């Protein structure tokens, strides 16, 4: 992709009639959209486990437990024959059930999603999230709980590529708000679920209370955002009119008062143009995918095996702190775009690969002295992953041509999901190897 002359022509910056008030509303709206979009995805694994565990205990006639009832929090059904205190089935099994629907959506939706206006997309995502909460909370069989996880995954995948595409209609700082909100979802989702269940509420009631989250998504989008006139809210784009409005906005831009409008901006993207955009995105997608591959290889293949029995924290408690510190790191770095921008995305990828290699060796040779060392590494891992995410999409937005930007933002979202899915597959044999020692 070449950097177009219209790089800084963010429509809402010129169409924002209320100045800083609208800018604040848009920033807050995108932060809440990021939080709400990833919320169901974050809590669904632990919630589904709790529901499945109850179903398993109620079904005393079952001869063998389902692999899907393996404790996602680690430490409840360990393999006593192994030198490692680990579950017989990797937590990657549940990860794959949660990520594959998202990956499928991200692979195919960017080619056709432009035909569905944003208003309908947001309603669909909210309904999928609400359905996931209801299905899992009322589930009476394993397949119903897994269906709820799938609904959450589809809604989160479609929401991510849609809201990333939506940012092109607003000032570029909303990308930082979106990234920060998605980081906040990890901390808020896990914390809220834990607090409510610890307070004595059943998982079923807790999930039903969380129906407020899809409602908050609808309120954030329809009541908080101040959309520009060019946004295709309920009707498919009228490309000629859209192009003319953007051209007029660019003519009014101080930064581009001497630049010529970008030629050929009318009409939908042709398949040839989309392939050209995808080729240009590879330099962003590969580093992002590599970061997330290394990241989730650690989270799903190695974290459970990093157990230190000589401290006051149990195995389950150590694992929960690993996950919590990871989410804190992600939140901090996904909120950092307003302070620092990192152009060398490959450096972030290589540093994350070093993390994965270090922890793989630590699992094999057990040379790390205590969990506090692992805590620091996991926090650093989250910082690298969050920074890679927000900087990738910031520079895609910055360097894409005005005509290509919306498609580019949606298409590039496949990078993290592809890396996560491949990490889940790679974690299976590694986990099995160590548990069999």
From TrEMBL:
<keyword id="KW-1133">Transmembrane helix</keyword>
<dbReference type="InterPro" id="IPR003492">
    <property type="entry name" value="Battenin_disease_Cln3"/>
</dbReference>
<feature type="transmembrane region" description="Helical">
    <location>
        <begin position="122"/>
        <end position="155"/>
    </location>
</feature>
<feature type="transmembrane region" description="Helical">
    <location>
        <begin position="30"/>
        <end position="48"/>
    </location>
</feature>
<dbReference type="GO" id="GO:0007040">
    <property type="term" value="P:lysosome organization"/>
</dbReference>
<dbReference type="GO" id="GO:0051453">
    <property type="term" value="P:regulation of intracellular pH"/>
</dbReference>
<feature type="transmembrane region" description="Helical">
    <location>
        <begin position="345"/>
        <end position="367"/>
    </location>
</feature>
<comment type="similarity">
    <text>Belongs to the battenin family.</text>
</comment>
<feature type="compositionally biased region" description="Low complexity">
    <location>
        <begin position="262"/>
        <end position="271"/>
    </location>
</feature>
<dbReference type="InterPro" id="IPR036259">
    <property type="entry name" value="MFS_trans_sf"/>
</dbReference>
<dbReference type="Pfam" id="PF02487">
    <property type="entry name" value="CLN3"/>
</dbReference>
<feature type="transmembrane region" description="Helical">
    <location>
        <begin position="205"/>
        <end position="226"/>
    </location>
</feature>
<protein>
    <recommendedName>
        <fullName>Battenin</fullName>
    </recommendedName>
</protein>
<dbReference type="GO" id="GO:0012505">
    <property type="term" value="C:endomembrane system"/>
</dbReference>
<keyword id="KW-0812">Transmembrane</keyword>
<feature type="region of interest" description="Disordered">
    <location>
        <begin position="1"/>
        <end position="21"/>
    </location>
</feature>
<feature type="transmembrane region" description="Helical">
    <location>
        <begin position="407"/>
        <end position="428"/>
    </location>
</feature>
<feature type="transmembrane region" description="Helical">
    <location>
        <begin position="175"/>
        <end position="193"/>
    </location>
</feature>
<keyword id="KW-0458">Lysosome</keyword>
<feature type="transmembrane region" description="Helical">
    <location>
        <begin position="373"/>
        <end position="395"/>
    </location>
</feature>
<dbReference type="GO" id="GO:0005765">
    <property type="term" value="C:lysosomal membrane"/>
</dbReference>
<keyword id="KW-0472">Membrane</keyword>
<dbReference type="InterPro" id="IPR018460">
    <property type="entry name" value="Battenin_disease_Cln3_subgr"/>
</dbReference>
<keyword id="KW-0813">Transport</keyword>
<feature type="region of interest" description="Disordered">
    <location>
        <begin position="249"/>
        <end position="271"/>
    </location>
</feature>
């Amino acid at each position: 992709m070449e950097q177009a002359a219209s790089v800084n022509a963010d429509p809402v910056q010129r169409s924002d009639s209320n100045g800083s008030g609208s800018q604040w509303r848009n920033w807050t709206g995108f932060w809440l959209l990021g939080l709400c979009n990833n919320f169901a995805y974050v809590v669904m694994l632990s919630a589904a486990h709790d529901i499945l565990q109850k179903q398993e205990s109620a079904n005393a006639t079952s001869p063998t437990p389902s692999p899907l009832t393996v404790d996602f929090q680690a430490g409840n059904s360990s393999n006593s024959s192994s030198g490692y205190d680990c579950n017989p089935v990797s937590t990657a099994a549940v990860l794959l059930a949660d990520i594959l629907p998202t990956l499928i959506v991200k692979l195919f939706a960017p080619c056709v999603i432009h035909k569905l206006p944003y208003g309908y997309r947001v309603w669909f995502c909210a309904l999928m999230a609400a359905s996931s909460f209801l299905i899992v909370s009322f589930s009476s069989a394993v397949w119903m709980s897994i269906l709820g996880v799938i609904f959450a995954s589809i809604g989160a995948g479609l929401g991510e590529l849609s809201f990333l595409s939506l940012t092109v209609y607003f000032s570029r700082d909303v990308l930082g708000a979106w990234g920060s909100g998605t980081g906040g979802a990890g901390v808020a989702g896990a914390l809220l679920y834990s607090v409510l269940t610890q307070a004595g509420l059943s998982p079923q009631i807790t999930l039903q209370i969380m129906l407020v989250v899809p409602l908050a998504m609808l309120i954030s989008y329809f009541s908080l955002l101040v959309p520009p006139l060019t946004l295709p809210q309920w009707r498919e784009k009228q490309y000629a009119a859209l192009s003319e409005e953007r051209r007029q906005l660019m003519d009014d831009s101080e930064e581009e008062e001497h630049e010529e409008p970008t030629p050929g901006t009318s009409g939908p993207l042709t398949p040839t143009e989309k392939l050209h955009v995808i080729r240009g995105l590879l330099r962003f997608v590969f580093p992002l995918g590599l970061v997330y591959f290394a990241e989730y290889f650690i989270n799903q293949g190695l974290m459970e095996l990093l157990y230190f029995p000589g401290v006051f924290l149990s195995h389950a408690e150590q694992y929960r702190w690993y996950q919590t510190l990871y989410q804190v790191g992600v939140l901090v770095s996904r909120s950092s775009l307003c302070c620092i921008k990192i152009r060398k995305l490959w450096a972030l990828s290589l540093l994350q690969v070093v993390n994965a290699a270090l922890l793989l060796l630590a699992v094999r040779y057990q040379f790390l002295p205590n969990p506090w060392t692992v805590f620091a590494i996991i926090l650093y891992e989250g910082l690298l992953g969050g920074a890679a995410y927000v900087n990738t999409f910031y520079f895609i937005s910055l360097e894409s041509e005005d005509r290509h930007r919306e498609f580019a933002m949606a298409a590039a979202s496949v990078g993290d999901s592809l890396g996560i899915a491949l990490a889940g597959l790679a974690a299976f044999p590694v986990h099995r190897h160590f548990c069999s020692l």
